[in-house]
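FORM 7B: Structural annotation worksheet

SECTION A. Query
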Amino acid sequence: MTDSTEKFVGIQISPISFVDEGVEPLLDMLGQRFGINVLLVGTISWLGLKVGRRLSWKLDGWPDHGVKSPSPLKGGSYIAEHPEYYANTFIKQFRAQDEELRDVDILETLIPEARKRGMRVYPEVMEPLFHYEGHGSANTVAIPNLPQVLEVDLFNRFGTSPCINHPDYRTWWHSIIEDYCRNYDIDGIMWCNERRSPLDNLISGAPPNCFCEHCRRQAIERGIDVERVKAAFRDVHAYFQAARAGAELVDGAFVGFLRALYDNPEVLLWERFWVERNKDMDRELYGIVKWCNPALKFGLNVWNRNHLNPLRKAQWPWAEMTQWCDWVKPITYQHQTGAIYVNEMTQWHQSILRDVSPQQMTPIMYRFLGLDEAPWDEVVQRGFDPDTYVHGQCLATVRAVQGKVPVYMGIGVDAPRTREDQAKCTPDIVRRSVLATYRAGGKGVVFSPNYAGMNLATLDGAAQALKEIGLFP
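SECTION B. Predicted structure
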């Protein structure tokens, strides 16, 4: 039996659900029916997955609760304006303008009622905020001056994402986090970092990033020859374009990739520079939280691509991340992950691994990644299994963090599907995922990605599991 004093049973929830269902009745239901005692609230985003209603309603219908309407998402910040915290960035005027939430401060509204019920509250924030494929992005982002912080690609074109090294964009994030910590009785922050690296972009067929003036200057300060880097990237970009186009490569695609890297080592130098600056963002936000209040917890909501992609798995080791967090939440959306894995590896098989079939490579890639799931031709339809996937990822994470921080598993509950033949979530999948977490040494669970997209009947499987292990009467 698990000690109930250590209970961390969380749910990610968007502001719209409190408007749709009422703060008090919703909190009562979450606590009394499902044993929820931690609320991870989307407080700023332009992505429906974080702050809207169910994304996959056309495919899956509407859930068994809430308002059944796909009202257009405008997005923004769902708290009151505190302009004094944003004096050092030109990014301003980003308060949400969704009709239902235009004048609502979701934290001010929610926290007193949560405290009455013994619930903890964490703002749940994720970078990137805008134009994220598969996350229900708002059609427009009406923030003045935002185009001035966009990335610049290898060919000097502006992209669709802000540059993490632009001082105004970075300072904006610093300001957001300080705003939360100074002005609200929260328990901490849950931060998620889901940016594709330069090499990541190349593998997916996109040009590498970012070569804006701020990235160039910071690289030069670190002794990097930016023009040589760009020349190297042009060569490697040409390799990927040729590989994806089916061009003949004398020694095959895999050896061709290794040769391209061997001839252009500056690509890996830039990749490391970019990834480390991305990690620095995490470290900076952790420090701001602790400066404002050392008692606040900084949790990392960690991208599932970190364990589905060998490149990212190498770049983001768990042991290192424990240096800048108080807990970790690996994302394991079991029923959805088969399709995510196929999408991920399809990019590799269109380029680096194009000379070996996915059917041949999948058992080998599973060994590389520590997975044991369905074959390639069945994995979308079957999804990943809770007793191998959730249990395996939890066990691996617990071992890697070596007791330095607790592991709270991100359990998928009706995470949005993108294909008709994709595996569906069930109460039993959720039940087995919760049981697998605690069996592997996890200290808690977070039901994800968004309550507004979950069926209560599916979430009942979680309550059943919590009862079985003594965390819910």
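SECTION C. Observations
Residues 260 and 416 are 38 Å apart (CA to CA). The chain has a mean pLDDT of 96.

SECTION D. Sign-off
Analyst initials: ____
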